[in-house]
Amino acid sequence: MAGQVSTTMTGISRRVGGLQRRMVGTLAMVLLILSLIFLVVLSGLYRTRITAEQERAAIQLSALFHATLENAMLKRDLPGLAAIISALGHEPDISAVRVLNPELEVRFASPPALASEVLDTEQIRRALADRIPSAKALPDQPDILRAIRPVPNRAACQSCHGPVEEHPVNGILVIDFAKGELQAESRKTAVVLAFAGLAVTLASLAASWWVLRRTVINPVARIEAGTRALAEGHLDHRLPVTGQDEIATLSAGFNRMAARLQEAMGRLDAAGQTLQSVIDAIPDGIRVIGPDYRVLMANAAYVAQSGLSHAGVIGQPCYKLSHQRSSPCPDTLVICPVAEAANGRLPLNCRQIHKAPGGEERHVELAAATLVLVREGGSTACVVEAIRDLDQQARLSQEQRLSEIGLLAAGLAHEIHNPLSSISLLVDAAQSDLGAGDNPGAAGRLRMIGEEMRRTLTLTNSLMLLSMPPSEEPILVEIDRIVPEALAILSFQARQAGAKEVVDIQPGLRFLGSESDLRMLVTNLVLNAFHAMLDGGTVHITARSDGRDVVLVIADEGIGIAPSDLTRIFLPFWTRRADGTSGRGLGLAIVQSIITRWNGSVAVESTLGQGTVFTIRFPDPDARQEEGSR
C-alpha cells in the first residue's frame, strides 16, 4: 500500500511539475517576446531621437563654421580660409569639408584631394533651391551625416559676387560628419536596454513562479492528491479551505462532493449488504458468473455446497468449482450456461452432477438465466445460476414424508388394534374349542385369525412402503394396485370424517416413477379431502389414459379453496384446514415435489361450497412406447 501511495504521489508531482514548467515556459516566452518588441520599439525611438539630435547639432555646427569662413572671406584672407577648412577636416568627428560655388564646383576642400570636383546631388540642389540648411545621412553611406548650408549673398559680399537679385547665393558649405561613435553609443545603449529587459524578465519569471506555485500549483496538487485518495477508497479525505478565492471555492466544492460520495457509497454498501443478505436467505445455491467463467457473486448456500469459503469461491472459474476442471467444460458433455448464454439459449433448466474438491459427486438441478450486472466501470452481461442440491432435497423430502406419516400413526393404531383384539378373542375361543375337543370349531376360528392377521400385515406393510424413501431411478408403477393399498391406511380417518371413497382406475394403468411417491401423493391429497368435508361426503379417485398422459383425478365435496389462496397452497408450511385442526403445511409441498420429480404437472380447480378437484398428469410410458414401435 505504501508503494502504491508513493507511486501515486510521484505521478502527481510529475504532472504538477509539468504544469508548472508549461506555465512558466509560456510566461517566459510571452515576456521575452514583449521584451523584444519593447526593445525594438525603444531602440527605434532612441535611434530616431539620436539622429534628430545629430542633424540639429550638425546644422548648428555648420552655422558656426559658416560664420568663421564668412569672416575670413570678407577679409579676403584666402590662406586663412584654407587653413580653417583644413583644421575642420582634421576634427575626429568630421570626415570632409567642402565649399562649393553656385555651379556646384568644389573650391575649397579638406582633404585637398576633393577640390575641383563637382558635387551634384539631389540633396545639395534642393538646399540650393530652398536656401534652407539641412542635415541628412547619405543614402549610400548611412554612417555619414551630411550638413548642407547655402551661403546667402549679402550687402557686404556684393562687391565680389554681384547684386543679390542676380546672385542670391554665394556658395554652399558641405560638412560630412562621421556617425561611427554615435552609432557605437547607440548600440551600447541598445545592449544595456536588452540586458535590463532580460533582468526584468527573469525577475518577473521568478516572481510569477513563486506566486504561481503558491496560489495555483500547490493548491492544484492538493486537489489532485485528494482526487486520488477518493479513487483509492479514502472517502473521508478532505481538503483544507483557506481564503475566499477560486481555489478555496473549488476545495469547498471538492469537500461537498466527497461528503456526498461517502454518503452514496455508504448507502450502496448497505444496499449491497442487504442484497447479499437476501440471496444468502435463499436455500438454493445462487452464483453469478461473468463472461470469462469466473464467479462474481455467491450466496451462503452455494458456499456451503462448494465446501469452500466465500473468498475461495469469488473469482474462481465455475468449471473448476463445479467439475474440478482446468478448462471450460466441452459443450458436447456438459450443458454450460455461459456458452448457452453466448448463443442466446437462456433461460434453461437441467440436471447435472457436480464434484466437490474431494471428488465427492452431488446431483443438482440447475436453473440459469441472463443477468446484467452493474458494477464499477460499467455493466456486464452475466449468467445467474440457481443450484438445487437434489441429494439434500431428497433427505429433506424424506424427513417431511416421515413427519406426515407420523400423523397417520394414531389412525393406523386404531386399525391395527381392532384386528389384534379380534385375534385375541379368537385365540381364547380356539383354545376352549380344543379343550372341549371341538376341532371343527377351532379350525374355523384359526381361519378367522389368519384373515385378521393378513389384514394387519396389509396395513403395516402399506405403512412401511409409504415410509420408504423414493427410488432414485424410475420404475413402472401399477396405479391400480398402489392406490387401493394407500387408501387402506386411511380407513380410520375416513370413518372419523364420515367420508367414503369411490375408486375408478383403468386396469393396467402405469407410469414411470416411485411406488412410495405415489402412495404419499394419494395419501396427502385424500387426507386433505377428508379435512375439507366437514359434514362428510365422497372422495372420487379416478385414473385414465389420456393420449400421451396418465391422468389421476382426486375430487372431494368439501368447502373448496378461496381463489386468493390457490397460488399459496403448495408453499411449504402454509396451512388452512377447514375443520380447524392444526396442520404442518407440508402435505401439498410434498405432492408438488413428487409431481415435479417425475416430470408431471398438477392443476387445481375449486369452487367455494362445492369442492376441489386435483388433476395430476404423468407421461404414459405405454402410450409413448406404442408410438415408438410404430
UniProtKB/TrEMBL annotation:
This is histidine kinase. The lineage of its organism: Bacteria, Pseudomonadati, Pseudomonadota, Alphaproteobacteria, Rhodobacterales. The chain crosses the membrane at residues 23-46, 189-212. The keyword Cell inner membrane does not apply. It is found in: Membrane. Pfam families: HAMP, HATPase_c, HisKA, PAS_4. Residues 214-266 form the HAMP domain. SUPFAM superfamilies: ATPase domain of HSP90 chaperone/DNA topoisomerase II/histidine kinase, HAMP domain-like, Homodimeric domain of signal transducing histidine kinase, PYP-like sensor domain (PAS domain). Its main location: membrane. It comes from the Bacteria. Keywords: ATP-binding, Kinase, Membrane, Nucleotide-binding, Phosphoprotein, Transferase, Transmembrane, Transmembrane helix, Two-component regulatory system. It is an enzyme of class 2 (transferase). It catalyses: ATP + protein L-histidine = ADP + protein N-phospho-L-histidine. It comes from Paracoccus methylovorus. Its EC number is 2.7.13.3. Residues 411-622 form the Histidine kinase domain. InterPro entries: HAMP_dom, HATPase_C_sf, HATPase_dom, His_kinase_dom, HisK_dim/P_dom, HisK_dim/P_sf, PAS, PAS-like_dom_sf.
